[in-house]
Amino acid sequence: MKFRELSSGRQVEVQLQQQGSTIQARIGGAVAQIGRQLLPDGAMLIEIGAVRVRAFAARAADSIVVSVGPHSFTFVPLKASRGASRSGLANPLVTAPMPGKVLKILVAEGDQVEAGQPLITMEAMKMETTLAAEGAARIKRIPVSEGQMIDAGAVLIELSPLDSSKP
Predict the structure, then answer these.
(1) Fewest 10 Å CB contacts: which of 41, 89, 119, 127?
(2) Would you say 141 and 85 are in contact if contact means Cβ atoms under 8 Å apart?
(3) Predicted model pTM
């Protein structure tokens, strides 16, 4: 399965292939063998080479949020495309991957954004997650405010396609 990591403000393609309790991860051009052990509290212990870390993964709407130590990453599955969509947007809504608090809104209504540009930072489970634009778009509406508590799946930002007839 292929994923794109969006939360760091850069887009990195990740391809995962499970082989028993080991996962082969291809991240950009690098390949890693990841050992995985599920823990009773729902977290997992992952091992990459000689490094062992505790991680937690949660599925939320169309994304997977992975927390490793103080870092959190949001992954969206890459779908096989049959050509570009008319609007140029895979999903016009940016939604909360888990319940939390809006810390900082990095854009304003009417702003034009590029693929990978950070849009909003939220706090969930004592970790900060920055959600980024999947593609070029214009900010249509921001129905939340800084400091607001939100539920998983809540709409944080509505996007609209860029008007190709305007420069």
Answers:
(1) 41
(2) no
(3) 0.50
- The answer for residues whose C-beta is within 8 angstroms of residue 124's C-beta and 6 or more apart is 65, 72, 96, 97, 98, 99, 100, 101
Q: Give per-residue burial for 80-117: e unless 16+ CB within 10 Å, then b.
A: eeeeeeeeebeeebbbbbbebebeebbbeeeeebeebb
Closest CA to 101 of 59, 159, 145, 158: 145
Using DSSP's 3-state secondary structure scheme, residue 91 falls into coil
Distance between CA atoms of 71 and 150, rounded to whole angstroms?
20
Q: Which of 39, 40, 61 is nearest to 52 (CA)?
A: 39
Bridge partners of 16, per DSSP, are: 25
Residue range(s) defining the domain that contains residue 64:
2-77
Q: Looking at the 3D structure of the chain, how many domains does it have? A: 2
Residue 121 sits in a domain whose CATH number is 2.40.50.100
Domain identity same for 19 and 64: yes
pLDDT digits (tens, 9 = 90+) for 3-32: 777 766 566 677 777 777 778 877 767 777
Looking at the fold, whether 97 and 135 belong to one and the same domain comes out as yes
